[in-house]
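Supplementary notes for students who missed Thursday's class. We covered one full example, reproduced here. Read the sequence, then the structure, then the short commentary at the end.
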Amino acid sequence: MDAAEALTLLMSPQGRIDPYSTYERLRAHGPVVEALPGLYVVTGYPEADELLRDPRLGVLDDALRDQVWPNWRESPAVSSIARSMLRTNPPDHSRMRRLAAGAFTPRRIAGMRDVVRAQAEELLDAMRDRDRDGAPVDVLADFAYPLPVAVICALLGVPAADRPLFRRWAGDLTGVLEPEITAEELAVADAGAAELRAYFAELVAARRRTPADDLTTALVQVHDTDGERLTGDELLANLVVLLVAGFETTTNLLGNGLVVLLEHPEAAAALRADSGLAPAYVEELLRYDSPVQLTTRTSTAPVRCGGLDLPAGSTTLLLLGAANRDPRRYPEPQRFDPTRDQAHPLSFGAGPHYCLGAGLARLEAQLAFPMLLRRLPGLALAGAPRHRTRLTLRGYESLPVTLGTPAVADRGAPAGAHPGTP
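Structure (token representation):
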């Protein structure tokens, strides 16, 4: 199978659901390969890491987007993403990112530990209450979605009563992040984006009337004080992206990771016994089945990487999920091994666009996995989980589980837990 055929397979529904075998077909052509004229695909870890950090590669800007998608401004989904820090290059990207970065400093994130833990405990209590007859529950709907959405909504100042609105809207909008999208899928994404923009327009108006101690108020005040630092379009676009990115990736991390742990009972038992292992487990779960599988870059100048010359104007598809399984970087990459040294997966990217909320996602996962396993030691899959037919944001559509017999005195720290750990 040549590289073009492998890329076509990867974009198919079958390839999106199970991309890893197709990654190996692409890897057989080298760590960087020109799959189509002007389109380069990267499967190698050092090559992907290098290109993510190279200032000569950037995200698709307005000028290039005009060439490939002349009517993009008419799409609420595309224009929302395009006006956010997610799809802008320096200096605009740096300007917008600095305005939000204060909410995601290590100190701020560490200060949220008790909030995350309390929210997780509340959700686990509710899951147990719904399991009185032993019927399966959907751990995505009951835990993996509401936990991160509650945390990001608290940061943004979104009322708790509104949290259930966002799962469908965000799920629809994120279709526009896929490398290929049909007209029907774009229409769905546009509808989700329109709902989200309308919601945040109302929240912005509310924060103007009644300021609060939250990120939305802070960004509104920046815009109202100096519209050149943050325009009105940028304000709404970044609020939408902060919300969506704040829970979509973490929801998939929790869902993907839980399936891996339940399929590796010995590893799960070790984490259940010692929550101090959680940081290493989370890094390996991010590597093994990344919630973000790819990103794209455009060359603004010639770049040489992996033995190939990438000309100016070419597009590079960086397969993060493949790079995380590069055997040159990770021996036996198909094996789940939380004892690996220095995992450092590329799941949150690298360079200027490194995920702003990576530390928060890690904290939520480091707390959530030991709590799930400790409080629900009989947790088991209730049949085969169903993947979404998405590639960029990899996760499950639903994840039914049975909870089993709850642990006795399950709120206490397990034997062997390290002081100060999750």
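Commentary. The domain at 3-402 is CATH 1.10.630.10 (Cytochrome p450). The CA atoms of residues 290 and 347 lie 6 Å apart. If anything here is unclear, bring it to office hours.
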